[in-house]
């Protein structure tokens, strides 16, 4: 389910937009509203969430369903 990822991403973007004003003086070579940085951050989070969901699903698809049901 992607709903928690999307909710977290939207909340994170809102919090980051507020927090960037606190660290604006430490930024060098990039502005707080640089769209490339925001897109890179969103892409990294979505890629991490995708890989984090794919690996357990891939492992679960390799298990024989009858063996999995017998162990319960």
How would you explain this protein's 3D organization?
It is a single chain. This protein has 72 residues and is mainly alpha-helical. The protein is built from 3 helices and no strands.
Percentage of residues assigned to helices: 55-70%
N-to-C SSE string, H for helix and E for strand: HHH
Shape: elongated
Number of strands: 0
Biggest beta sheet summary: none
Computed CA radius of gyration, to the nearest angstrom:
19 Å
Q: How far apart are the termini?
A: 25 Å
**What is the beta-strand fraction?**
under 5%
Number of helices, counting only DSSP H or I runs of 4 residues or more: 3
Uncertain stretches: none
Estimate the mean pLDDT confidence.
83
Structural class assignment? mainly alpha
State the main characteristics.
72 residues, 3 helices, elongated
Summarize the structure.
This protein starts with a helix and ends with a helix.
Secondary-structure blueprint of this entry?
Blueprint: H1 3-19, H2 35-61, H3 65-70
């Amino acid at each position: 389910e992607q709903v928690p990822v999307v909710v977290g991403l939207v909340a994170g973007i809102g919090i980051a937009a507020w927090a960037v004003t606190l660290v604006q003086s430490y930024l060098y070579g990039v502005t707080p509203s640089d769209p490339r940085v925001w897109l890179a951050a969103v892409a990294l989070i979505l890629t991490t969430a995708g890989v984090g969901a794919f690996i357990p699903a891939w492992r679960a698809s390799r298990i024989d369903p009858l063996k999995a049901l017998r162990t319960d």
